Amino acid sequence: MKIVKLVAVAVALVPAALAITYSTDANACGMSIRMDSTPQKPTPVQSIANAEKALENGQNLAAAKAVLANFPKVRVATAGANPLETRALRVFALAVVRSNGSVNEKTAGFPSGGNEWTPTANLEWAVQSIREIDAKRPNDPTVQADLGEALSKLPHGRKESMTILQGLAQKDLMGSPHAYAALAKLRSDQGDAAGAQAAIKRCEEMSKTPGVCRPATKVASPATVAAKA
């Protein structure tokens, strides 16, 4: 009878033992396991990486917001002083360029103390920022392509832009489909329809984002140009 009672007690204790074993705060082999449903805030490195992805996907405003959330004073950042801050500076400058100057602190929800950036002033700032990055990373085709793309947005920068982008294209060193799109626009404006179509083709081969290679103004085909001549 005593044996039967002992077995009954042991069986009764099993659920309690299991409850202890599988509690939310359990200790197994000296390791503590805690179930925490609170989402973890991305680190600055993760945030800037996400900003770069947003930029490449054509989400310029989202990219700018991610940068400003981590580097609210990115406009006064010194290129090359801090690698992560320099990456953030590049992303923000290109978000400005690819939005034709419309992205700024105000549109991104981070008012800059009342300072208003006109599209032209914004583009001028972006060109200068990328130029400073280029000075710190000379002979980097990706940065040179960024600079050529940015310069193409300003009337006084188009000649320099053409020189930079043509040189990269001839050496097959263009680091960005956006830069090929900028080159296509420049060639089209100069009446080089064949060259514009070639640049668009290379852009389409590189880009995964719809609309990147579509020029703001329709590029005429070489046959159309010949017919009008």
Oligomer: single chain
Question: Total helix count?
Answer: 10
**Strand share of the residues?**
under 5%
Determine the mean pLDDT: 84
What separation lies between the terminal Cα atoms?
113 Å
Question: Taking Cα atoms only, what radius of gyration do you get, to the nearest Å?
Answer: 28 Å
Question: By helix and strand content, what is the structural category?
Answer: mainly alpha
Largest sheet at a glance? 2 strands, antiparallel
- In total, the number of strands is 2
Strand order of the largest sheet: 1-2
User: How would the global form be characterised?
Assistant: globular
Which ranges are low-confidence, i.e. pLDDT below 50, for 5 or more consecutive residues? 6-11, 13-28, 216-229
Order of helices and strands: HEEHHHHHHHHH
Helix content: 55-70%
Structure, explained:
The structure is a single chain. The chain is mainly alpha-helical. Among the domains are: 42-118, no CATH class; 139-219. 59% of the residues lie in helices and 3% in strands. It contains ten helices and two strands; from the N terminus they run αββααααααααα. The protein has helices spanning 2-21, 44-56, 60-70, 83-98, 119-136, 141-151, 158-170, 177-189, 193-206, 222-228; strands at 25-28, 31-34. Strands 1-2 form a two-stranded antiparallel sheet. A hairpin with a 2-residue loop joins β1 and β2. α4 (83-98) runs antiparallel to α5 (119-136), α5 packs antiparallel against α6 and α6 packs antiparallel against α7 (158-170). It is globular, with a radius of gyration of 28 Å. The termini are far apart.
